[in-house]
TrEMBL record:
Entry-linked PANTHER family: EPIMERASE FAMILY PROTEIN SDR39U1, SUGAR NUCLEOTIDE EPIMERASE RELATED
Transmembrane segments: none
Domain NAD-dependent epimerase/dehydratase: 4-218
CDD domains membership: SDR_a8
Family: Belongs to the NAD(P)-dependent epimerase/dehydratase family. SDR39U1 subfamily.
Annotated ranges, domain DUF1731: 252-298
Xref: Gene3D superfamilies: NAD(P)-binding Rossmann-like Domain
Protein name: TIGR01777 family oxidoreductase
One Pfam assignment: Epimerase
């Protein structure tokens, strides 16, 4: 049985990934900073990916590594301390994983490491694909450092896939779970101007892309994990209202979001029009290419 070692498996994406990998017959070992219930057929290892420690031994002999751990980007204000935690919980954890790979006698075949479309420039009409250069802002630099740390695994002969994830849509986590209660009350609407592009992906397709990246020898390097049809924020809000059968024209103005969220408001206010060119070129077929179908499934 092939072993997969996962960090951040207790999170939003991880909770969808675990059952899918179990169904595929992988042996799953998951790292968490908290004691977790092992009855689900997952072997949980207690440890902090920010610290070099015993957990690193689990990398030896694994077929694949999936790295999803990271302090949530939205939620807390980006104080200097929070920015350091956002960075270290991604960059230092990746370095610890790659150091474990360097030391492993039996090295993994593949590392699938999360990244984000936050790498790219914001607020542009331009289509962003895997060849677009990183932005010179906080998220751009963070994602570049995160990916650079992961790419060191290639030196050790490990096929490395950098999943640049867009806004993940699922009922039970991420941005949509925050928006749904407001929209269900009929009080939802576009965030900010509404004109900005919104690069979304159904959580089933994030799971699909991780499974594909683990299994497909041709998957390598940066891969945008976004649906092939991004939409403008105003159309996203209108579609969400339509599938919920609720009005959705009350805009949340930028100044209010900036007040509430501080600099982290840029994640929802600054649009990005990202396309999954690498995944499509390499043969990945999206389960949810269109936003209305995706929203009908998750609401
Ligand atoms: N969801 C999205 O829309 C989205 C978009 C773009 C990129 N991504 C990236 O994809 C990855 C997975 O996303 P997700 O939404 O599943 O993440 P999540 O639910 O916010 O968190 C994943 C896990 O990371 C661990 N973690 C949280 N804070 C940490 C810290 N300070 N230090 C070390 N570990 C920490 C936690 O595991 P334990 O508590 O069990 O240790 C948590 O369950 C993340 O790296 C995220 O940045 C997500």
């Amino acid at each position: 049985m092939k072993k997969i070692f996962i960090t951040g498996a207790s999170g939003f994406v991880g909770q969808h990934l675990l059952p899918a990998l179990k169904l595929e017959g992988y042996e799953i070992v998951a790292l968490s900073r908290k004691v977790r219930d092992t009855s689900s057929g997952v072997r949980w290892v207690l440890g902090d990916p920010l610290e070099a420690d015993d957990w690193q031994r689990e990398v030896d002999g694994a077929y694949g590594i999936v790295h999803l751990a990271g302090e949530p980007i939205v939620g807390k204000r980006w104080t200097p301390e929070q920015k350091k935690l956002l960075r270290d919980s991604r960059v230092v954890t990746t370095q610890n994983l790659v150091n474990a790979i360097a030391q492993a006698k039996q090295k993994p075949a593949v590392l699938v490491s999360a990244s984000a479309i936050g790498l790219y420039p914001k607020n542009q009409e331009t289509e962003l694909d895997e060849t677009t250069r990183p932005a010179d802002d906080f998220l751009g630099k963070l994602c570049q450092e995160w990916e650079d740390a992961a790419k060191v695994a290639e030196v050790h002969g490990v096929r490395t896939v950098l999943l640049r994830i867009g806004v993940v849509l699922g009922r039970d986590g991420g941005a949509l779970a925050r928006m749904l209660p407001i929209f269900k009350l009929g009080l939802g609407g576009p965030l900010g101007s509404g004109n900005q592009w919104f690069s979304w992906i159904h959580v089933a397709d994030v799971v699909g892309l991780i499974r594909w990246a683990l299994a497909s020898e041709s998957a390598q390097g940066p891969v945008n994990a976004v649906a092939p049809n991004p939409v403008r924020m105003r159309d996203f809000a209108a579609t969400l209202g339509k599938v919920l059968n609720r009005p959705a024209f009350l805009p949340a103005p930028s100044f209010a979001l900036n007040l509430m969220l501080g600099e982290s408001a840029q994640v929802v206010l600054d649009g990005q029009r990202a396309l999954p060119r690498a995944a499509l070129r390499q043969g990945y077929s999206f389960r949810f290419p269109n936003v209305e179908d995706a929203l009908r499934d998750v609401t």
